[in-house]
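Expect sequence, tokenised fold; for instance:
***
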Amino acid sequence: MKRDIFQAIADPTRRAILVLIATQALTPNALADQFDITRQAVSKHIKILNECELLEQEKVGREIYYELKIDKMKEVDQWLEQFRKIWENRFDQLDDLLTKLKSENDES
């Protein structure tokens, strides 16, 4: 079952896992050591991240290493882009207003 990527990032623990594996591939045990939750709970989070296609896994001996599929995060970035444009426009308008007010204040 494929899940929606936003389901994955809705949970703070899964977001933290993504941050950890963004820089280096980690095993489930190494991930579990970073949290105050059980190895089984970490495995459930990994399963959801896998279902959202956010992880790549590589088997090395008996260990499985997980790393972030950074390209998949583009889906989130594209969704956020619409809000980024709105806020940039609002900041530009605020900047124009402040410049105008400063100019009027300097003239008086």
About this structure: The chain has a mean pLDDT of 91. The longest helix spans residues 74-107. The first strand starts at residue 55 and ends at 60. The helical segments are 5-10, 12-23, 28-32, 39-51, 74-107.
